[in-house]
Amino acid sequence: QVQLVESGGGLVQAGGSLRLSCAASGTIFSITTMGWYRQAPGKQRELVAAITSVGITNYADSVKGRFTISRENAKNTVYLQMNSLKPEDTAVYYCNAYVRTSYTRPTPYWGQGTQVTVSS
Description:
Layout: E1 2-7, E2 10-13, E3 18-26, E4 30-39, E5 46-51, E6 57-59, E7 67-72, E8 77-82, E9 91-100, E10 107-110, E11 114-119
Parallel strand pairs: 2-11
Antiparallel strand pairs: 1-3, 3-8, 4-5, 4-9, 5-6, 7-8, 9-10, 9-11
């Protein structure tokens, strides 16, 4: 079994910063892509940023230049540094990781979500 535990959400004023963390634990053989998704009320869950095991990153257009994703492979941890936050960034942010628990194809796991609220 694999668990993803997120931390770092909260309430911040527009223009402020937050840093999200997500640590994976359990029976982990390897982790390929890790990422952050978000879901605002009444909207579909969307990709915010993703990073491969060798550090290749991908960002949603709406966060490019403001958010930075990084990871520490030795700690099975992914981070999301969010700067210049806007009210439209308000959402529940979910961590995602593709995990191999043995010599099989990676399986996606999700964290429980952390609320980010940006006030205007």
